[in-house]
Amino acid sequence: MKLKKVISLTAVCALVLSLAACGTKGGDTKGEKSDFPDGKQISIVVPYAAGGASDTTARIFATQFEDALDTSVTVTNVEGASGAIGLQQVADSKPDGYTVSYMPVESTMLKALGYTKVSTDDFKFIGRAMTIPAAITVRADSEWQTFEEFIEYAKANPGEIQIGNSGTGSIWHIAAATVEQECGVQFTHVPFDGASPAVAALLGDNIQAVAVSPSEVKSNVDSGEFRVLAVLGDERSDVVPDVQTASELGYDITIQGWGGFAVPKDTPQDVVDILSDAAEKAINSDEMTEVLETNGFTPAYLSGSEMDKVASGLLADYAELIPKLGITQ
Questions:
Q1: What's the chain's average pLDDT?
Q2: To 10 degrees, the CA torsion angle through 309, 310, 311, 312?
Q3: CA 59/CA 163 separation, integer angstroms
Q4: Which of 65, 99, 127, 176 is 20 to 30 A removed from 35 (C-alpha atoms)?
Q5: Are 219 and 237 in contact (CB under 8 A)?
Q6: C-beta neighbour count of 281 within 10 angstroms
Q7: Please, which residues have CB within 8 angstroms of residue 72's CB and are 6 or more apart in sequence?
Q8: 196 CB contacts (<8 Å, ≥6 apart)?
């Protein structure tokens, strides 16, 4: 009888240990440390052309992100449809943490624009890096010395001013359309696949103005080729500190972009947490802060969970605003 009890107790102990081991190997990994990224390469997809604010931010981030994760990080530009093609590519990728998307403010607009069904609801953010204001810029040899002169001309000549942007439905297109609405004017909007081609078109005198950020025209302003007429942010830009905001000039216009990073929504939370920790270190590093400021961006870190909430609110806001601006597809 005593022998039977010992055998039974041994069997029970073996069963408990076996179940515990199974539980550890199963889906409940709470408390375990993931080996992600395990030396594998991570790809960051930028949904715009090289050279613009999005591309610059992503490449600065990639260097610091690589150090924080101790693995290689590459940046790929996937252009088209105001960012929809690149974002869709990431949303459809395997949710394993190895494909990250640069997330522009346009990611909260594309669904309302009718370009794609993809939206920020299809992602989990791992962090926001910066904010950046819109600005209205013309050639230095143009007839408009001030924003007021520019608006007066637009009122007297509806549709004559061709104003470039980084793509139909982009934040810079929204900026120009908002100027139209608030000032009672009409522009001819000329979309490009990113800010850099729009700036090149203005430099070539193929259009009369651009609605992009101050940082994207900085080198041309410094060389005396361009003139910024107004900044559309809530405060002046350090890039062009002498240029007044539209608000200072009496216009109720505030439009700014932001840039962050996200992964497909079904990415395991333990992987999201690792990426989020690395993103925080990268974004808040002295090196990234310095380069962001040098390029005219405002460092503005927000955690992934905070950005999920911000994006959700903007998604609803733009769903209401964009149809009013008349730029849905």
A1: 89
A2: 50
A3: 28
A4: 127
A5: no
A6: 16
A7: 41, 42, 66
A8: 49, 50, 51, 52, 216
Cα–Cα distances (Å) from 37 to 24, 46, 63, 129, in that order, read 20, 20, 16, 22
Beta-carbon-side half-sphere exposure of residue 112 (alpha carbons within 13 Å)? 25
Exposure pattern of 243-256 as b/e (b: 16+ CB <10 Å)? bbbbbeeebebbbb
Q: In a 3-state reduction of DSSP, which class is residue 110?
A: helix
Distance CA 167, CA 90 (A): 19
Give percent of the chain with pLDDT exceeding 90.
71
298-303/123-133 β-pairing: antiparallel
Which tokens in the block code for residue 238? 């350090």
pTM: 0.75
Question: Token pair 């080729």 is at which residue?
Answer: 225
pLDDT digits (tens, 9 = 90+) for 41-75: 999 999 988 987 789 899 999 999 999 999 999 99
Q: Token pair of 193, please?
A: 């696949």
Residues forming beta bridges with residue 210, ordered by sequence position: 137, 164
Structure tokens at 306: 């905070």
Calculate the alpha carbon distances from 86 to 46, 48, 80, 149, 167 in Å: 7, 8, 7, 38, 13
Q: Which two tokens stand for residue 59?
A: 């490449």
Identify the CA nearest to 230 among candidates 247, 205, 208, 206: 247
3-state secondary structure of 81: helix
Instruction: Give which of 171, 208, 211 is closest to 327, Cα–Cα.
Output: 171
pLDDT tens-place string over residues 288-297: 999 888 878 8
Q: How far is it, in rounded angstroms, from Cα 286 to Cα 290?
A: 6
> Which residue carries 């030396």 as its tokens?
39
